[in-house]
Write a structure and sequence with these properties.
about 280 residues, alpha+beta, 2 domains, five-stranded antiparallel sheet, 7 helices, about 45% helix
Length: about 280
């Protein structure tokens, strides 16, 4: 079993890398064909080492690799040029026009805008996205979910819920946090600091808790519960884990006075009908 535990991760890693290389090679095939058409690939035939490889019937593989490598270098050069252009004022304006044109295409525009926002977040040096691991109290009196603090909630969510101090939390789902999770707006009184790193948190989620090294560090301090003694138990919907505010007394005529989730935002206080 020890040998399997050592070999299986290695085999999976090699398989993923091979699949990634095949994908890159397929994407760069038009560049390789262009280089062959321009005669740039055949220039390597004048190298003595390449001549030797031709004699032993290895040239076809080597020249294919060299062509893909050269095309990859060209592609990286294009990326660098586009990045430098994007930092210029007129370049930003040109890229903005391209964004508008692509975003206007039905279907493709939705996917493009999603990845565009993801890229903007990755390039935002002032953000603290996924830099803090927290525990969020939800679903019951003593049930907590491991999540990542991503920033401050929008003003609309704060105004709608009546909570003055809230935090935006991403609660990933085990064992694949990349493709599943909840975006939630949670009162800070329901969020607890936990002494684990980002790597430990991700490892715990990927292994469904099997690889959690320090279980004791994941339990919040007892004195933190004194701030939430007056909170009522709330069973949120599947798309929300934000509980009620501790200072807010729900109306007897409105038993469903709960904090909306990330996919449902209540109307502003100006639009509410006073009780």
């Amino acid at each position: 079993m020890t040998g399997i535990a050592i070999i299986v991760p290695f085999v999976i890693t090699v398989y993923i890398l091979d699949a990634a290389l095949d994908f890159v090679a397929g994407a760069l095939q038009p560049f390789v064909d262009l280089l062959k058409w321009l005669g740039m690939i055949e220039a390597f035939q004048r190298i003595n080492a390449i001549k030797f490889l031709i004699r032993i019937d290895v040239y076809s593989r080597v020249i294919g690799f060299l062509g893909e490598l050269f095309a990859l270098i060209v592609l990286l050069g294009i990326i660098v040029v586009v990045g430098s252009l994007g930092q210029h004022r007129y370049g930003e304006r040109l890229i903005g026009y391209i964004d508008l044109a692509v975003s206007a295409i039905p279907g493709i525009g939705t996917v493009y805008k999603s990845f565009r926002r993801m890229g903007d977040v990755m390039l935002d040096d002032t953000s603290e996205n996924f830099e803090e691991v927290r525990l969020v109290r939800c679903l019951g009196e003593d049930i907590y979910m491991l999540g990542f603090e991503t920033g401050q909630p929008p003003e609309a969510a704060v105004d709608a819920t009546g909570h003055e101090d809230m935090v935006t939390m991403f609660l990933p789902l085990a064992p694949n946090p990349v493709t599943g999770g909840y975006l939630t707006y949670v009162p800070r009184s329901q969020v607890y600091d936990v002494d684990i790193t980002i790597e430990e948190g991700v490892r715990s989620i990927l292994t469904s808790g099997v690889a959690a090294d320090d279980q004791a560090a994941m339990i919040p301090d007892d004195h933190a519960f004194s701030e939430i003694d007056r909170l009522q138990d709330v069973v949120p919907r599947a798309d929300s884990v934000a509980p009620q505010e501790d200072d807010r007394t729900p109306s007897e005529d409105d038993p469903e006075d709960v904090v909306p989730g990330s996919e449902s935002v209540a109307p502003n206080e100006d639009d509410r009908t006073p009780e």
